[in-house]
Design brief:
Blueprint: E1 11-17, H1 25-36, E2 42-45, E3 49-53, H2 57-61, H3 65-80, E4 83-89, H4 92-99, E5 107-109, H5 115-119, H6 132-140, H7 146-150, H8 154-161, H9 163-172, E6 190-200, H10 203-224, E7 226-227, E8 230-237, E9 242-247, H11 256-269, E10 277-285, E11 288-289, H12 302-320, H13 343-348, E12 357-359
Parallel strand pairs: 4-5
Antiparallel strand pairs: 1-3, 1-4, 2-3, 6-10, 6-12, 7-11, 8-9, 8-10
Helix pairs in contact: 8-9, 10-11
Length: 360
């Protein structure tokens, strides 16, 4: 662990809870300014969280970790009407886990002496990089909690998951995290989010939501004259844990089919079989001017024709609204309750699709 025995934990993880849900990008920047008035070592974790190294702030403000966290919460509420969930721990991993197991407004100070008991009952999916597929592999070995994993020999984990992932899991299950807080502001990005009205287990409905989010991002990128170099998918589950994967398209793009294909690949890589999904968040990162992007030359006219169709659809949406042109698989079924000659569409489309998303 990063802290010496007997020392106070000095890594603070904070999540913001503004009245309207997740903070808008401009509001998030202002909240980061508030944190940097406490300590200059602030690492942004968009869209709604941050890490702080408070080792220098504790003696400066003549307080302990709980007192400093309470002060930050009071300032956020007083100046921005934004509540917080805060955890202080010996390293970033433990601070993240402690913050995500607390309700809004809560504070948890996790000392080294409490780490083993805190980690023991948590499921493997609470750790970053452990999705449902890896959890199923571990469950076949009876490793359903971090306590059991911590007691498992390293070679067993390496055989099950591979040398690198097995080693990381072995360390994380014991609360070992060699990383530190790195000061960083959020990179320019566009984020589209879909909240399911109830826990969603159907992969077809999840893919339908991803299709809509990819269309939203593609339309926004083209309107801004930008391309995305990365696409990140964050899946939040019913138990408030989440999984995140990032992938680069073949080349920086604003083309909706490329974004959709990348989103589907990210979704498939998580192996979400019967996972209870609450929220899907798709983030386009490493934004750059579209004029700087290089396109692979090809003799196939289909990509250029598809872009012409896409530009026409964008003009229609700009003139008549975002529903003017919609993928057929997202249309609600006709009154008779079925798509004629296309049963696949009926399965893919929600019965009354109403996009519940935020685009930032």
């Amino acid at each position: 662990m990063s802290a010496r025995p007997g020392t106070a934990p000095t890594v603070l993880h904070i999540r913001f809870h503004p009245p309207g849900g997740e903070p808008e990008p401009a509001d998030y920047e202002v909240l980061l300014d508030l944190l940097e008035a406490i300590t200059p070592v602030v690492q942004a974790l968009p869209p709604d969280a941050a890490l702080l190294d408070i080792s220098g702030a504790l003696p400066y403000f003549h307080t302990d970790p709980a007192g400093l966290a309470a002060m930050i919460r009071a300032r956020a509420l007083a100046t921005h009407s934004t509540d917080t969930t805060t955890a202080v721990a010996p390293n970033p991993l433990l601070a993240h886990l402690a913050a995500h197991t607390q309700p809004a407004g809560a504070l948890r100070v996790l000392t080294e002496q409490q780490v083993a008991a805190f980690l023991a009952p948590l499921p493997p999916t609470a750790l970053p990089g452990i999705g449902p597929a890896a959890a199923r592999t571990l469950a076949q070995l009876g490793l359903t909690t971090l306590g059991r994993i911590a007691a498992t020999p390293l070679p067993t984990l390496q055989r099950a998951l591979g040398a690198g992932p097995g080693t990381r899991l072995h360390q994380h299950a014991r609360g070992i995290d060699p990383t530190s807080v790195v000061p960083a502001r959020p990179e320019p990005a566009l984020t589209a989010e879909h909240h399911f009205p109830a826990d969603e287990l159907d992969p077809d409905r999840q893919r339908a939501a991803l299709l809509h989010l990819a269309h939203q991002l593609g339309t926004a990128l083209r309107a801004r004259g930008q391309v995305a170099g990365t696409l990140t998918l964050t899946v939040r589950y019913a138990d408030r844990t989440c999984s995140t994967r990032t992938r680069r398209p073949a080349q920086p793009t604003d083309h909706t089919p490329d974004l959709t294909d990348t989103a589907y690949r990210l979704h498939h890589s998580l192996g979400l079989q019967r996972a209870r999904v609450r929220t899907l968040l798709l983030r386009a990162g490493e934004l750059a001017p579209a004029g700087t992007a290089h396109r692979q030359l090809t003799l196939d006219p289909a990509p250029d024709l598809a872009r012409l169709h896409e530009a026409a659809a964008d003009r229609a949406r700009h003139r008549f609204g975002h529903r003017a042109v919609t993928p057929a698989s997202l249309l609600p079924p006709p009154p008779h309750g079925r798509w004629e000659n296309s049963p696949a569409r009926e399965r893919a489309a929600p019965s009354s699709w109403e996009p519940d998303h935020q685009l930032q």
